Amino acid sequence: MKFLKIYLLLSLFFFSCKNESSSIVYIHSFQRTQTDKFIVNIKKEKGNIYYKYSNKKDTIKDLHVVFNIKNDILISDKDTFYTIHKEYNTSDFSYKMYQQKVVKSHNRTLVFNKNYGLLSSTALGADFLILKDSLSAIKNEAIFKEIILELNRISK
Fold first, then answer.
1. pTM of this prediction?
2. What is the mean pLDDT of the chain?
3. Rounded to whole angstroms, how far apart are CA atoms 125 and 119?
4. Any bridge partners for residue 48, and if so which?
5. Cα 7 to the chain's mean position, in Å?
6. In 3D, which of 29, 18, 13 has the Cα closest to residue 63?
7. pLDDT tens digits, residue range 52-98?
8. How many Å apart are CA 154 and CA 26, to the nearest integer?
Protein backbone atom coordinates (compact mmCIF):
# COMPACT_ATOMS: atom_id res chain seq x y z
CA MET A 1 0.00 0.00 0.00
CA LYS A 2 2.85 2.36 0.86
CA PHE A 3 4.44 1.80 -2.58
CA LEU A 4 1.11 2.48 -4.27
CA LYS A 5 0.83 5.87 -2.53
CA ILE A 6 4.40 6.77 -3.53
CA TYR A 7 3.74 5.67 -7.11
CA LEU A 8 0.54 7.74 -7.27
CA LEU A 9 2.27 10.82 -5.86
CA LEU A 10 5.18 10.50 -8.30
CA SER A 11 2.78 9.94 -11.21
CA LEU A 12 0.76 13.00 -10.24
CA PHE A 13 3.96 15.07 -9.96
CA PHE A 14 5.28 14.01 -13.37
CA PHE A 15 1.87 14.38 -15.00
CA SER A 16 1.44 17.91 -13.65
CA CYS A 17 4.95 18.87 -14.80
CA LYS A 18 4.08 17.98 -18.38
CA ASN A 19 1.26 20.54 -18.31
CA GLU A 20 3.63 23.44 -17.60
CA SER A 21 6.58 24.90 -19.44
CA SER A 22 8.56 28.11 -19.51
CA SER A 23 11.01 29.72 -21.89
CA ILE A 24 12.67 33.03 -22.66
CA VAL A 25 11.16 35.26 -25.34
CA TYR A 26 11.99 38.69 -26.68
CA ILE A 27 9.25 41.28 -27.11
CA HIS A 28 10.06 43.95 -29.66
CA SER A 29 7.99 47.12 -29.34
CA PHE A 30 7.74 49.15 -32.53
CA GLN A 31 6.78 52.34 -30.67
CA ARG A 32 9.96 52.36 -28.61
CA THR A 33 12.17 50.44 -31.08
CA GLN A 34 13.30 48.43 -28.10
CA THR A 35 13.50 44.71 -27.33
CA ASP A 36 12.77 43.43 -23.81
CA LYS A 37 13.53 40.00 -22.42
CA PHE A 38 10.54 38.15 -20.92
CA ILE A 39 9.85 34.72 -19.49
CA VAL A 40 6.73 33.02 -20.80
CA ASN A 41 5.09 30.43 -18.57
CA ILE A 42 2.58 28.16 -20.29
CA LYS A 43 0.16 26.09 -18.23
CA LYS A 44 -2.59 23.75 -19.46
CA GLU A 45 -5.53 23.42 -17.12
CA LYS A 46 -9.23 22.46 -17.49
CA GLY A 47 -9.64 23.12 -21.23
CA ASN A 48 -7.61 26.32 -21.18
CA ILE A 49 -3.99 27.19 -21.83
CA TYR A 50 -2.62 30.06 -19.76
CA TYR A 51 0.27 32.19 -21.06
CA LYS A 52 2.00 34.56 -18.67
CA TYR A 53 4.67 36.83 -20.13
CA SER A 54 6.75 38.21 -17.23
CA ASN A 55 9.34 40.96 -17.21
CA LYS A 56 11.55 40.83 -14.11
CA LYS A 57 12.62 44.47 -14.46
CA ASP A 58 9.13 45.93 -14.86
CA THR A 59 6.06 43.94 -13.77
CA ILE A 60 3.75 46.57 -15.30
CA LYS A 61 4.74 45.13 -18.69
CA ASP A 62 3.49 41.63 -17.72
CA LEU A 63 0.96 40.16 -20.13
CA HIS A 64 -1.60 37.42 -19.45
CA VAL A 65 -3.41 35.53 -22.21
CA VAL A 66 -5.85 32.63 -21.88
CA PHE A 67 -6.65 30.34 -24.82
CA ASN A 68 -9.94 28.44 -24.56
CA ILE A 69 -9.33 25.28 -26.57
CA LYS A 70 -12.97 24.26 -27.04
CA ASN A 71 -14.22 27.65 -28.27
CA ASP A 72 -10.98 28.71 -30.04
CA ILE A 73 -10.96 32.13 -28.35
CA LEU A 74 -8.33 34.26 -26.63
CA ILE A 75 -8.89 36.32 -23.51
CA SER A 76 -6.49 39.16 -22.73
CA ASP A 77 -6.95 42.19 -20.48
CA LYS A 78 -10.65 41.30 -19.98
CA ASP A 79 -11.19 41.40 -23.77
CA THR A 80 -12.27 38.40 -25.80
CA PHE A 81 -10.76 37.76 -29.23
CA TYR A 82 -12.30 35.54 -31.91
CA THR A 83 -10.61 33.96 -34.90
CA ILE A 84 -10.99 35.92 -38.14
CA HIS A 85 -10.03 32.92 -40.31
CA LYS A 86 -6.75 34.42 -41.50
CA GLU A 87 -3.38 32.86 -40.90
CA TYR A 88 0.28 33.76 -40.93
CA ASN A 89 2.55 30.80 -41.72
CA THR A 90 6.22 30.23 -40.96
CA SER A 91 8.34 27.14 -41.51
CA ASP A 92 7.62 26.07 -37.90
CA PHE A 93 4.06 27.13 -37.11
CA SER A 94 0.76 28.27 -38.53
CA TYR A 95 -0.58 31.23 -36.56
CA LYS A 96 -4.25 32.19 -36.43
CA MET A 97 -5.39 35.80 -36.25
CA TYR A 98 -7.88 36.95 -33.62
CA GLN A 99 -9.87 40.17 -33.22
CA GLN A 100 -12.58 41.50 -30.94
CA LYS A 101 -16.16 41.27 -32.24
CA VAL A 102 -16.91 44.77 -31.03
CA VAL A 103 -14.19 47.35 -31.57
CA LYS A 104 -14.19 49.81 -28.65
CA SER A 105 -11.67 52.42 -29.77
CA HIS A 106 -9.34 50.80 -32.31
CA ASN A 107 -8.99 47.42 -33.92
CA ARG A 108 -6.53 45.06 -32.26
CA THR A 109 -5.31 41.82 -33.85
CA LEU A 110 -3.53 39.04 -31.98
CA VAL A 111 -1.44 36.57 -34.00
CA PHE A 112 -1.35 33.31 -32.05
CA ASN A 113 -0.46 29.61 -32.10
CA LYS A 114 -1.46 27.42 -29.13
CA ASN A 115 1.96 25.71 -29.04
CA TYR A 116 3.98 28.92 -29.45
CA GLY A 117 1.77 31.52 -27.79
CA LEU A 118 1.51 35.09 -29.05
CA LEU A 119 3.62 36.05 -32.04
CA SER A 120 2.31 39.57 -32.49
CA SER A 121 -0.19 42.20 -31.51
CA THR A 122 -1.25 44.90 -33.92
CA ALA A 123 -3.04 47.88 -32.47
CA LEU A 124 -2.76 51.62 -32.73
CA GLY A 125 0.11 52.52 -30.42
CA ALA A 126 0.69 48.95 -29.19
CA ASP A 127 2.38 47.01 -31.99
CA PHE A 128 4.77 44.34 -30.81
CA LEU A 129 6.41 41.10 -31.93
CA ILE A 130 7.28 38.16 -29.64
CA LEU A 131 10.14 35.91 -30.75
CA LYS A 132 12.17 33.12 -29.17
CA ASP A 133 15.35 34.73 -30.55
CA SER A 134 16.53 38.32 -30.42
CA LEU A 135 16.76 39.50 -34.03
CA SER A 136 17.87 42.74 -35.58
CA ALA A 137 15.40 45.60 -35.83
CA ILE A 138 15.32 45.21 -39.62
CA LYS A 139 14.39 41.51 -39.41
CA ASN A 140 11.75 42.23 -36.75
CA GLU A 141 10.22 44.91 -38.96
CA ALA A 142 10.22 42.58 -42.00
CA ILE A 143 8.36 39.86 -40.06
CA PHE A 144 5.85 42.40 -38.75
CA LYS A 145 5.24 43.77 -42.26
CA GLU A 146 4.57 40.22 -43.51
CA ILE A 147 1.96 39.80 -40.76
CA ILE A 148 0.29 43.12 -41.66
CA LEU A 149 0.23 42.17 -45.36
CA GLU A 150 -1.39 38.83 -44.52
CA LEU A 151 -3.92 40.54 -42.24
CA ASN A 152 -4.89 42.97 -45.02
CA ARG A 153 -4.90 40.35 -47.81
CA ILE A 154 -8.25 40.28 -49.56
CA SER A 155 -9.78 36.81 -49.62
CA LYS A 156 -11.00 35.47 -52.96
1. 0.80
2. 83
3. 17
4. 45, 68
5. 35
6. 29
7. 999 888 777 788 999 999 999 999 888 899 999 899 999 889 999 99
8. 31
